[in-house]
Specification:
Layout lengths: L1 H10 L8 H6 L1 E2 L8 E3 L4 E6 L5 E6 L2 E6 L5 E6 L5 E10 L2 E18 L1 H4 L8 H6 L3 E8 L12 H6 L11 E4 L1 H5 L3 H14 L3 E5 L13 H6 L10 H7 L3 H10 L1 H5 L14 H7 L9 E5 L2 H4 L9 H18 L7 E4 L9 H9 L6 E4 L15 H16 L11 E8 L2 E7 L6 E2 L8 E4 L5 E3 L1 E5 L2 E5 L8 E4 L9 E2 L9 E4 L4
Parallel strand pairs: 2-8, 8-11, 8-12, 9-11, 12-13, 13-14
Antiparallel strand pairs: 1-3, 3-6, 4-5, 4-7, 7-8, 9-10, 15-16, 16-21, 17-23, 18-19, 18-22, 20-21, 22-24
Helix pairs in contact: 7-16, 14-15
Length: 510
């Protein structure tokens, strides 16, 4: 209420000198706008800038707080946690000036991040036009952070001069979800948010900051990567990355854009969305302090294979994911921040080992993985079925994050491996009612290997949550794998229809 704000400011007004500079310089972080969603059940941090040494008062509903700006003019306040609800008015003021933000709702805020498959618009997706036409969802709010730097051609001198952390994204506004705003929003994000809202009835706020083509090193701070000795030194050195970076498509595009500077590399290196640390500084660090329910992440295409199609070290990506998740959890001061990610789908690219590295990321506490091996496109890195990707992420969120105990929310995944003579016995985690095949035929996609290191096709039988695998060509197996191919012919699903996770289990001969 405005009376709370006035009382708060007056209580400390003697600490500041009211002046035109204080009034004119008052501002909030860009993520705070009309129609915003703030996270329920967590203390609410509001922050911004004003003249140094002035008192700033903030009120939201019946809650109010004050802060004194530091010598650089920065300020922040923490308001008490609120249950889902609203609308509220957020009022921020200094002596002589007041800013107000209308239609503020309290609900669940999700960050939708990654590269082009997360950025892929709803109206570009399968069934997206019809979905957008019916997307009148006032309790779903969208904050669409579109990239601010072109990735086309060789940048002009003006573009090079303007390329900075501050210009990495265009200005954004929170908007209610309407047919117009939904059409250009992330298809995965839209379906995820819509499904969660329908399941919970809680307001959903979606922030999308995905950038097409971006490698994982762009999303992680230089400090975090530099401290991780298992990562190569060039991932924390933007200049070295331009020469040595293994994400060769992203590196070659960055070199093309920065060509004029590279011809005469004097002065500071201009910013670029693919450089190590850039998107962290431009798109993650500015959100630090915001309450989140969790993250959904769809990225990896730029790190799976190089421009010639050769496999990039999958283990390195697993370490990079560990580093990124820990980095973001520290940044948001949420050590248990839920992090749900998409395993790359089937395609005629050599991604099998990369998908296994992604599966191993499930060992990181608080993570979940949506398996999409069955909904890829043989020749297109942008499969159009974003609805199912969003649905699978929403199942994970409902079950794993919100605790709604959704049956069969996760793809079955092996949890036990045992060799008994010529047979491999596997048990999978699946609460959906038992394994089956999509077509009623025998299970396909299994292989066994012995100490000779030659993988051979294998037969499998299913019994509830158990799989028995055998191959006459491998009398003494030491490891088993499933769906380990670019575009595998595989047909096993859990009781609710989610695909069996591609896997490698056992002792693989080197």
């Amino acid at each position: 209420m405005r009376t709370h704000l006035a009382s708060a400011v007056l209580a400390l007004s003697l600490l500041s000198q009211a002046c035109a500079d204080a009034r004119d310089s008052l501002e909030l972080a860009p993520v705070f706008t009309d129609h915003m969603v703030l996270q329920r059940g967590q203390p609410i941090e509001i922050w911004g800038r004003a003249e140094a040494g002035v008192v700033v008062g903030v009120s939201l509903g019946d809650a109010a707080a004050v802060a004194v700006t530091d010598p650089l003019g920065a300020w922040s306040v923490e308001l008490e946690a609120l249950d889902a609800g609203g609308p509220y008015e957020l009022v921020v003021g200094v002596a002589g000036r007041e800013l107000s933000f209308e239609d503020v709702l309290i609900g669940d805020v999700w960050l939708c991040s990654g590269q082009s498959n997360m950025r892929w618009q709803l109206d570009q997706s399968e069934g997206g036009d019809a979905a957008a036409a019916g997307a009148d969802l006032p309790q779903v709010r969208l904050f669409d952070m579109q990239g601010g730097l072109s990735l086309a051609g060789t940048w002009s001198e003006r573009q090079l001069a303007d390329a900075s952390i501050e210009s990495g994204y265009q200005a954004a506004q929170w908007t209610p979800c309407t047919p117009r705003t939904a059409a250009s929003f992330s298809g995965v994000g839209y379906w995820f948010g819509r499904d969660l809202h329908e399941r919970t009835g809680v307001t959903i706020g979606l922030i999308c900051n995905a950038i097409g083509g971006s490698p994982i090193e762009a999303w992680t701070s230089l400090e975090a990567m530099g401290a991780e000795t298992r990562l190569p030194a060039f991932v924390s050195d933007p200049r070295a990355w331009l020469e040595q970076g293994e994400s060769t498509w992203a590196r070659s595009r960055a070199r093309q854009n920065l060509g004029r500077w590279l011809d005469d590399p004097t002065g500071a290196l201009p910013g670029h969305p693919f450089l190590p640390g850039f998107l962290f500084d431009s798109g993650i660090r500015p959100l630090a302090g915001l309450g989140l329910r969790g993250v959904i992440w769809y990225q990896g295409e730029s790190n799976a294979t190089d421009e010639a199609g050769a496999v990039i070290d999958p283990e390195r990506y697993r370490v990079a994911m560990q580093t990124l998740i820990a980095n973001w959890r520290r940044t948001f001061a949420m050590p248990d921040l839920p992090f749900l990610f998409v395993q790359l789908p089937g395609i005629e690219r050599d991604w099998a080992a990369f998908r296994e590295a992604q599966r191993r990321c499930l060992e990181i506490p608080g993570t979940g993985m949506a398996v999409t091996i069955d909904i890829g496109d043989a020749g297109d890195v942008h499969p159009r079925n974003k609805r199912e990707v969003g649905r699978r992420l929403a199942l994970l969120a409902a079950d794993q994050v919100l605790g709604l105990e959704v049956v069969g929310a996760r793809s079955p995944n092996p949890v036990e491996f045992e060799v008994e003579g010529a047979r491999v016995h596997l048990r999978v985690a699946d609460d959906g009612g038992g394994l089956a095949t999509t077509d009623g035929a025998a299970p396909r996609g299994f292989e066994l290997v012995g100490d000779d290191g030659t993988w051979q096709p294998a037969a499998a039988t299913l019994d509830g949550d158990r799989i028995v695998v055998i191959s006459e060509a491998v009398p003494t197996p030491v490891a088993a794998r499933y769906a380990f191919a670019p575009l595998p012919d595989c047909n096993v699903v859990g009781g609710t229809g989610l695909p069996l996770t591609p896997f490698v289990e056992g002792r693989v001969p080197q």
